Amino acid sequence: MFDARFWLPESINSMAEGTDQFFMVLIWVSVISLLVVLGPMIWMMFRYRASQDIDRSAPPSHHLGLEIVWTVIPTAILIGVFFWGATGYTKMVVPPTDAMEIRATGQKWFWTFDYPEEGIRVRASLEADEERVKNGIPPGLVVPVDTPIKIVGSSADVIHSFYVPAFRVKKDVLPNRYTVATFQATKEGTYDLFCAEYCGTKHSKMITKVSVVSQEAFAEFISKQSEESDKPIDGATVFNTSGCAGCHAVVASSGGIGPTLHGLWGKTETLVDETTVVADENYIRESIVNPMEKIVRGYSPMMPNYSGQLSEDELNALVLYIRDLSPEKEGAE
Ligand code: CUA
User: Which atom number of ligand 1 is nearest to the Cα of residue 196?
Assistant: First the structure.
């Protein structure tokens, strides 16, 4: 009970170092606070009960020293907890620039993992994992050991949550918005990946694994998967078949009906109401499914709404395609 290992499996995420100590400090601060409040309360319940013959005439008194003590100490603890928590949280949510990117899509009731660099896609569910293990392929999400990983998550239907207890990582994946989780696994092995947000009938079966493998085994996994037919959708194809190319250039140009998408990624756009927005994954996605929300200055609000027109897959592929039209790539958040 004095160690987080009593509650959780061994932590093997180097980006979550310190999380367990913080967790235990919070638990013990809570336990001690509980005792400090509850102890005297119980004692007073007995000491001052009706049958007790004590002098009740004294008026309630004010004790300045006591007031200061119970204001200053909890405030100091709160400030300490805030800064400790904020530091650790920042470390866990800001991915290093060299992180390997994997796209995770939650869906009733399985996960799809796309590796855009490697051009492969894997589906992960209890059944799919069983099948892969049978074929000698590591189950679930496969990542190399000692490599920073950036998970960009979204959902094709309702809210799911990407929860890996051994990584101390839990991140909701949401429809129509991207969220980012990062980790760096320090130990090879197979770890549980749960959906931690109730998402319907088979929520409790939305279980898979994270397989942390050696660099060699990872390369082998990639080459094996590349032979499979399942591939991420090609964003360029979606772009050309959905009518995007009619208004948006993909090369540096001006004067089109819509803004050029070349160099858009990471750029600060000025909108018609003079506010600015940084073009990241969430902005690009919103501009596709809800184009009237943010109109770039100098353009007319005339883009059709693609909400419901494109599948989650097609949307993700488009966002990736548009991102890669720019020389330097960076993540959301
Ligand atoms: Cu997906 Cu619960």
Answer: 2
